[in-house]
Write a structure and sequence with these properties.
There is one protein chain. This protein is α/β, with parallel strands linked by helices and 284 residues long. The protein has one domain: TIM Barrel (Alpha-Beta Barrel). It is built from eight helices and 15 strands. Helix 1 runs parallel beside helix 2, helix 3 packs parallel to helix 4 and helix 4 packs across helix 5. The chain is globular, with a radius of gyration of 17 Å. It starts with 8 loop residues before the first strand and ends in a 5-residue tail after the last helix. It holds the Pfam family DAHP_synth_1. Pathway: Carbohydrate biosynthesis; 3-deoxy-D-manno-octulosonate biosynthesis; 3-deoxy-D-manno-octulosonate from D-ribulose 5-phosphate: step 2/3; Bacterial outer membrane biogenesis; lipopolysaccharide biosynthesis. It catalyses: D-arabinose 5-phosphate + phosphoenolpyruvate + H2O = 3-deoxy-alpha-D-manno-2-octulosonate-8-phosphate + phosphate. This is 2-dehydro-3-deoxyphosphooctonate aldolase.
């Protein structure tokens, strides 16, 4: 059954959704240090200004789902939020970060513009409700183990917990589906199915090419497929894209194998925005 047209909404003071410009969540996987985050944010800020595009800087203060106990997780919530706040003030970009517990959701909401719930925690009702209850916009990632239609009850949980005076908006994010062991596949039909939530749809182009646990004690990736998958999602008509980027992916402390080299981002985003303008934003 075809989805009904969506109402437009706003994110960080900019219109998003059906018929509106493409927006971008981008940054390093994890807050490595202040210097790297500011360098990446400045490069993304240049893209945002040049294209008059909403770009939201993304970095996690804690990567709680690392394959190995010895992998870098971050510097903790206090230092991570300090760096994100500095990015926000110095680079002039809004910021988004992952939260893993209700307590983290409440603390992060005091600093960041947008919250995000990780794909592996997409069934955690307490976390979903706590993030929604902050009144902040929330990007809800679909679990790798979930069908696209499973996002409808997730969003119903969030709406029940949202402040009576409003809050949000809520967004739903596709990031690939488990396809056997150590592999993900993207079903572009899911981008249309998730529209039934009534939320803007985001496509996570870099995590969708991840090969979970494929390198034994860490994940691998296939970054050569980021651009074709992103182009397909934009052609379908997503409202926004999610991409992790790093100046030196080979030496990134998390998710390097599926990150876009920072130097390639201007060309890639130019190309995707031009495609979006031709295709039109048919999804919210």
């Amino acid at each position: 059954m075809p989805a009904e047209p969506l109402e437009r909404t706003e994110l960080c003071g900019r219109p998003i959704g059906a018929g509106e410009p493409l927006f971008l969540f981008a940054g390093p996987c994890v807050v490595e240090d202040e210097r790297i985050c500011l360098a990446i944010a400045e490069a993304l800020s240049d893209i945002a200004r040049r294209l008059d595009m909403l770009v939201v800087f993304k970095a996690s203060f804690d990567k709680a789902n690392r394959t190995s106990a010895t992998s870098f997780r971050g510097h903790g919530i206090d230092e991570g939020l300090r760096v994100l706040e500095k990015v926000r003030s110095e680079a002039g970009l809004p910021v988004i970060t992952d939260v893993h517990t209700p307590e983290q959701a409440r603390a992060a909401a005091e600093v960041v513009d947008v919250l995000q719930t990780p794909a592996l925690l997409a069934r955690q009702t307490d976390l979903i409700e706590a993030a929604a209850a902050t009144g902040r916009p929330v990007n809800f990632k679909k679990g790798q183990f979930m069908a696209p239609a499973d996002m409808e009850p997730l969003i119903a949980k969030a709406r029940r917990a949202a402040p009576q005076e409003g809050g949000g908006p809520f967004l739903v994010c596709e990031r690939g589906t488990s396809f056997g062991y150590n592999n993900l596949v993207v079903d572009m039909r899911g981008l249309v199915v998730m529209r039934r939530t009534g939320c803007p749809v985001v496509f996570d182009a870099t995590h969708s090419v991840q090969l979970p646990g494929a390198s034994g004690d860490k994940s691998a990736g296939q970054p050569e497929f980021v651009e074709p998958l992103a182009r397909a999602a934009v052609a379908v008509g997503v409202a926004g894209l999610f991409m992790e980027t790093h100046p030196d992916p080979a030496n990134a402390l998390s998710d390097g194998p599926n990150s876009i080299p920072l130097a390639e981002m201007p060309r890639l985003i130019d190309s995707l925005q031009a495609l979006h303008a031709r295709a039109g934003a048919r999804l919210g």
